[in-house]
Write a structure and sequence with these properties.
It is a single chain. The chain is of the alpha+beta class and about 150 residues long. It folds into two domains: about 70 residues, no CATH class; about 55 residues. Helix content is about 40%, strand content about 15%. It is built from four helices and six strands. The strands form two sheets. It has a four-stranded antiparallel β-sheet with strand order 1-4-2-3. A two-stranded antiparallel sheet has the order 5-6. Strand 5 and strand 6 form a beta hairpin. Helix 3 packs antiparallel against helix 4. The chain is elongated, with a radius of gyration of 29 Å. It starts with a strand and ends in a 16-residue tail after the last helix. The relative contact order is 0.11.
Length: about 150
């Protein structure tokens, strides 16, 4: 475990330290780097080499956090697959809405669409219907509909 440095002691050669409230580690071989970051070795806590190594190369599923208590490892949270799928659905719906905007505008103005335009509009509207009905509870394995050509 980490050990407090006695203010009267010199830092150990080639040892690693941290100061609560500061982000990062400081090596005693580089006192100027510590001073440039506004810290003194006499206010720092030494980290044993094994603990330091676990911080700079965290085990799988962990990441390094610094706070007022010093460094610690925390578990990487699982992705929120449902939120990711909802964002994807919103993005696909937005793109589909953009794709049909010109045709909708023409219809609102009382203009007539060509047969090809009407076919494309209907294909996009069918796509939007299927997209709106797409089940997201299986995220991340959502079966997204294919966009019209």
């Amino acid at each position: 475990m980490s050990e407090e440095i006695n203010n009267a002691m010199e830092p150990l050669p080639d040892a690693n330290y941290y100061m609560p409230g500061k982000i990062g580690f400081f090596n005693s071989m580089y006192p100027d780097a510590a001073a440039a970051n506004g810290v003194d070795f006499d206010k720092m806590t030494r980290i044993p080499d094994e603990e330091y190594q676990s911080f700079i190369s965290p085990p799988e599923g962990k990441y390094l956090v610094f706070d007022e208590s010093g460094p610690r490892l925390e578990s990487i949270p699982e992705p929120d697959y449902l939120a990711i799928a909802e964002d994807q659905k919103d993005s696909l719906l937005s793109a589909a809405t953009t794709a049909i905007t010109v045709w909708q505008t023409k219809l609102l103005m009382g203009r007539t669409l060509t047969a090809a335009e009407m076919e494309k509009l209907n294909a996009w509207m069918d796509y939007i219907d299927v997209l709106n009905d797409t089940e997201l509870s299986d995220a991340p394995d959502v079966r997204w509909p294919t966009k019209p050509a």
